[in-house]
Amino acid sequence: MSPQTAAVFRRRLHRWYRRHCRDLPWRRTRDPYRILISELMLQQTQVSRVLDFYARFLDRFPDLPALASARPARVMEAWAGLGYYARARNLHKLAREVTTDRAGVIPHDPVELRTLPGIGAYTAGAVASFAYEKRAALVDTNVARVLHRVFAPDAAPKSGPGLKRLWRIAEDVLPRTGKATWLHNQAIMELGALVCTARSPKCGQCPVRQGCASVDHFAPR
Q1: Does domain 3-21+138-216 have CATH number 1.10.1670.10?
Q2: DSSP code of 61?
Q3: How confident is the model at residue 220 (pLDDT cuts 50, 70, 90)?
Q4: How far is Cα 63 from Cα 14, in angstroms, rounded to an integer?
Q5: Which of 42, 74, 131, 154 could form a disulfide with 35 if both were Cys (CB 3.0 to 4.6 A apart)?
Q6: Residue 182 contacts residue 129 (beta carbons within 8 Å)
Q7: Model pTM?
Q8: Of these residues, 39, 77, 112, 133, which one is catalytic?
Q9: Any catalytic annotation for residue 171?
Q10: The domain at 31-132 falls in which architecture?
């Protein structure tokens, strides 16, 4: 990918995001604990379901020490209804490990973040980018779909080689600075959630449709 292609993609994407982004509580903070909670809750769970759980969970456990000192049963009780309960168990383990071994400081480096319980490549990139404004790539389902359709329709987004290729593309289109990367990563996720959806993508509303390798595939026939 040429630098010019990446720059045009970023410019159009960022302009769209500034006009159309949703006001979500985890976008109003840089607190790594709150970012981490939101990212774990959002895994395989719709935003509309997470909103209420997020607020209630933080009311009960407002910071990392409060979560670390809680009994496991209380943590599971607060998570009840969200499903995928391994997320809650890993979050509790993480809180205790960070409080005990890391002076209560959640790491900012994606490589170091991945050593914590339940933290994969995406979550590590998200915490580094959204909490610490580090220049870190991330690829979740929405991001993979956008990059797959726009730049690499021949890459299977769920396969090993295809997914690795999408991670490389995600790196290629990142802005130079971490602060700009915060907006960029939020924007590409938002595009996948609102416009470049899995079913019936709204190509007519897409800010990056010019140059998209898949737009003709979704055109009305």
Answers
A1: yes
A2: -
A3: low
A4: 32
A5: 131
A6: yes
A7: 0.93
A8: 39
A9: no
A10: Orthogonal Bundle (1.10)
